[in-house]
Amino acid sequence: MKKLWITYRSFIYSNCTVPAIPQSSTYYWKNHLFATTVVFLIPLSIIVLVPGIYMAYKFSLTGMLLSDFITLGSILAVAFMPGISVFARKIIFNGALYSTSVVMLHYLGSTGPGLLYLFAITVFVLVSLDQRYGYLTLLLNTLICIYFGIALHYGFASSILEKEYPLDSWIAVSSNLVFLSGTAVFLIPKLFNGLQSAFEKQEHLKNKLEDSVENLNAKNKELERFAYTVSHDLKEPLRMVRSFMELLKNKYGKQLDDKAHTYIHHAVDGAKRMGDNIDDLLQYSRIGRKYTTIEKTDLNRLVDGILKNLTADIKKTQAQISIGDLPTMHLVPVSIKILFQNLLTNALKYQSDGQRPVITVEAKEKDTCWQFEVSDNGIGIEPRYHDQVFAVFKRLHTRDKFTGNGMGLAISKKIVEQHGGNIWIESNQEQGSTFTFTIGKHHIVKKNNDSV
Ligand code: ADP
């Protein structure tokens, strides 16, 4: 039954609409309104035909019965007959309604639905055709009303009307019909004009947005290429500084005093750190661009792998690490590995001297995401720094106290956001820290075909 209805509806839509007209034109909607009217009017007319046949039989109104069938036939032709333009279908449709309304006025007078039909035609015409055709219906409605008025006044009404009705009541009712038709002719086009300008504005905004996105993508690619080239070009002289410092040490080491050795050490260390900073910046720029392959990932295995990489630090600090039951999710494993690695490395690193790290990793399922917590018993972070530590190159300690370059949490935040989540800290100085982050269950990580 559903299939039959869909076929019926799409057949009428294919006859009564013009596919080439874009949605941004009110004609698209006018045609669709017309098609929808035809779709529903056919079954409704068939239902209405039953009391029509009964009335015609009871009062022997053969003319009315004939007219009902002609109207239904015309609407069926509008819906199903091939080879007619949409405009012609609209004219036939409204013409059929006109003939029905005149016949109804003729047989049933002002108490019947004839006048209602006249008003309905004005509305149908206005929602499916131009305003000028609305004016035409206003004129026709007025002429029909005047004609019946004259017929009543000059007494030849009885020859054309089966049932006479008083002229006074006819004038009262028909003048209201003319008034309402006039109101519709002025108001309904205003609605369509408003819609048209809204469509135009929307189209304009859409084009602007598309241009901006295109521009942004081009700029992003350019920036990525720039970052890549800069990092390569910057690392080359750094490598030279390091290797010449090594040469200097190896070749002239014996001639140099302790101070010179310290200077060489600082120069090599500085060059190494700068190299690390450049690598981290490049990694930061790659999150969400190069690392985009989504895979179904068992996070228990992923975290296990990280702990193996951290074995030396874990042994050295005698850390106690407990990992809860973690889910298997669709995500970018390369990024998520970096995220857990950063948080676990920090949890091991930011501890008071002699303190044995106690670290836990937990996962809680929420409606639309998973929430992960990485907690430690380390030195903690004062609340006023909770937002700042996620900034690029932001550190709270000097390098002689804790190694690092302040990029770990910035990269972590970007990874979480890439997965449609948030990251935040609960911590107080000397009271350990909990890093909580969420990862959307259905977040589609956007792919970008960038080669950097
Ligand atoms: P890095 O560790 O390389 O300095 P991060 O971006 O990972 O850079 O961290 C930024 C700062 O946040 C660190 O310098 C440190 O002060 C603070 N921090 C990060 N993790 C912790 C933690 N688990 N406990 C205490 N402080 C932390």
How does the SSE layout of this entry go?
Elements: H1 2-16, H2 26-58, H3 62-80, H4 86-108, H5 114-128, H6 131-153, H7 157-160, H8 167-252, H9 258-286, E1 295-298, H10 299-309, H11 311-317, E2 320-323, E3 328-331, H12 333-349, E4 358-365, E5 369-376, H13 408-418, E6 423-427, E7 433-440
Parallel strand pairs: 2-4
Antiparallel strand pairs: 1-3, 4-5, 5-7, 6-7
Number of separate helices: 13
The biggest sheet, with number of strands, parallel, antiparallel or mixed sense and barrel status, is: 5 strands, mixed
- Total strands: the figure is 7
Beta fraction: 5-15%
Q: Which stretches are poorly predicted, pLDDT < 50 over at least 5 residues?
A: 446-452
Q: What do you see in this structure?
A:
The protein is of the alpha+beta class and 452 residues long. The chain folds into 2 domains: 2-209, no CATH class; 292-452, Heat Shock Protein 90, CATH 3.30.565. It is 65% helix and 9% strand. The protein has 13 helices and 7 strands. It has helices at residues 2-16, 26-58, 62-80, 86-108, 114-128, 131-153, 157-160, 167-252, 258-286, 299-309, 311-317, 333-349, 408-418; strands spanning 295-298, 320-323, 328-331, 358-365, 369-376, 423-427, 433-440. Strands 2-4-5-7-6 form a 5-stranded mixed sheet. A two-stranded antiparallel ribbon has the order 1-3. Adenosine-5'-diphosphate binds at residues 342, 346-347, 350, 376, 378-381, 389, 394-397, 404-410, 433. The site of adenosine-5'-diphosphate has 22 residues, from α12 and α13.
